[in-house]
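PROTEIN DESIGN WORKSHEET
SECTION A - STRUCTURE
LENGTH: 241
TOKENS:
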């Protein structure tokens, strides 16, 4: 879909508004915000719960960030859970900002669902919407967002429904991501045992009592969740397949 003729991608009419911890809500030209750490800002929209609503908002605790991140639907929650398991992701924030542009007739705005920071320093702006629920106005907003993000040097992704089998496995493993499951002696021993890929249960038993080693093994816990770029058990990937 082409960008509406009135959209000036590089002009001063393209602005971004976000919540500054010191100054509150701020609105600035997009070109002045390209280095902003939008993985750390407060959401620009409130997550509301009302009886009878068809969407399901809530909060999820990613081990990657160590703080709650909001979602506005189960699909957003599922994508948030999968991003938390992506070893290249080091920061996630929801509803990070409003993008403002003019379509030639009136001002338009769109708040992407997530801002993601990767270990290499790059940024990804994410919208979550199932393929069969994209209306023309949504497609237009996503396309404009993609082009404006390119101007800022950010990637844009529109994510739909994830693979059910992958999601089921990750959801099961997610309960072990909490720091309470990380026992450093067991983690150190597991690193030694799985220096080379091997059978999961055999390795868990070789590392010690299975009741202690399996939660650590399943969790893929990070010794420093907010800074580490790779899960400590990256060498176990073959064992989990």
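SECTION B - SEQUENCE
RESIDUE ASSIGNMENT:
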């Amino acid at each position: 879909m082409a960008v509406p003729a009135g959209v000036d991608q590089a002009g001063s009419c393209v602005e971004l508004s976000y919540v500054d911890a010191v100054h509150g809500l701020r609105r600035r030209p997009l070109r002045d915000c390209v280095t902003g750490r939008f993985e750390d800002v407060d959401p620009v929209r409130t997550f509301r719960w009302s009886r009878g609503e068809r969407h399901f908002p809530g909060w999820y605790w990613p081990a990657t960030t160590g703080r709650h991140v909001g979602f506005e639907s189960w699909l957003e929650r599922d994508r948030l859970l999968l991003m938390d398991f992506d070893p290249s992701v080091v920061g996630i924030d929801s509803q990070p900002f409003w993008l403002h542009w003019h379509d030639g007739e009136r001002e338009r705005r769109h708040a992407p669902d997530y801002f993601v920071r990767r270990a290499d320093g790059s940024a990804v702006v994410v919208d979550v919407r199932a393929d069969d629920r994209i209306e023309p106005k949504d497609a237009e907003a996503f396309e404009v967002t993609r082009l404006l993000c390119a101007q800022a040097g950010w990637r844009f992704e529109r994510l739909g429904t994830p693979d059910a089998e992958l999601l089921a496995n990750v959801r099961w493993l997610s309960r072990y991501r909490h720091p309470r499951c990380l026992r450093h002696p067991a983690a150190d021993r597991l690193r030694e045992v799985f220096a080379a890929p091997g059978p999961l249960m055999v390795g868990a038993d070789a590392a010690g009592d299975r009741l202690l080693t399996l939660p650590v093994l399943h969790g893929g816990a990070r010794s420093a969740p907010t800074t580490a770029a790779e899960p400590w058990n990256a060498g176990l990937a073959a064992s989990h397949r």
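SECTION C - NOTES
Strands lie at 15-20, 24-29, 58-60, 69-71, 89-94, 98-102, 107-110, 114-118, 123-128, 155-159.
The first helix runs from residue 74 to 84.
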